[in-house]
Amino acid sequence: MEDNKENNKSGSHRADDASHEEGDGSTHEADKKDDDEGSDDKADGKADKKDKPRSKKPLIILGIVILIGAIVAFIWWFATRNQVTTDDAYTDGNAVTMSPNVSGYVMALLINDNSYVHKGDVLVQIDARSYEAARDNAAAQLAMAQAQLESAQIGLRLAGVQYPAQLAQAQAQEKSARASFVQAQSNYDRQHAVDRRATTEENIDAADSQHLAAQAGVDNAHAQLRIAAQVGEQLAQAQNKVAQAESQVKQAQAELAAARLNVEYCRIIAPSDGWIAKRNVQQGSYLAAGTPMFVLVTPDIWVTANFKESQLERMRPGDEVDIGVDAYPNRKLHGHVDSVQLGSGSRFAAFPAENATGNFVKIVQRVPVKIVVDRGLDPKEPLPLGLSVSPVVMLK
Hints:
Elongation Factor Tu (Ef-tu), domain 3; nine-stranded antiparallel beta sheet; alpha+beta; 5 helices
């Protein structure tokens, strides 16, 4: 009985195992079917994607963008093909350094920093008392020289009359001396020609003395005549005195003019309209001649633009220029090219480059170009010197 029970149990277990195996097989087959169906769906999706055509819209947009960029670039090139510009440009003008011609203490300072002055205004007054004294002394010296000149001129007029008269007088005295000598000679010959008995020793001695005296008179008259005959030299001497006096007068006049100039130099006057800059003078300070006091900036403003040498091929004087000022973006200036400097900036530098020595490296040179501003400047708001500007030259 027990064996039958065991056999029945074993049989039931086997049946259960078989049923389990059949169940497992059916589930595996179902899973395989599901996998096959999923793989078929994926394959169908890929096939659908491969068969669907790609969109050309991105390519069209890219092409349009490239075309628009090319058109814009062409328009920009076409609009600027006749323009050259540089950022190496600055406002420039006349900056006059004012220095005194004379030394002295500042008695009055009539200017202030950045103040505007007009031509002819007195800016600085230097103590002029010592220079006024020198002026008065020079005036006295001139008066003395003029008096000496008048005296020399009078002497020349007198010499023109006196020396010819003395010559005539000497000539007359010589003739008189010769006549006396002839008479004395005749008496001398007569006394010595007659017999000793017909005359006396006294008469002979008198004739001898008269003869000697007449000879001496002739010699004296001849000497006086030689002196009086130098009329030309004597007149020339008088004329030289006049010329010397005239030169002394001119010297005195020059000294007086210099003294007057020194007095005028004590008043520093504005040579033109402008603004005071870089003031270096105070009231009461001592100024030596030639010491810079301040700088006078005139209203004349232009632009100095340092263009590259490769930009000068078509640039000519008269080309119109549009100028933008960095400090005033809303202000637009208009001008024209005035001139091109005959030399690069490096050529006129304090230490020019020695291109003929050492290793040479070619560097693009810059040449200063003067641009005159025609319109756009505001008199109420002048442009300071040295401001950065951006000029655009319209080439012809």
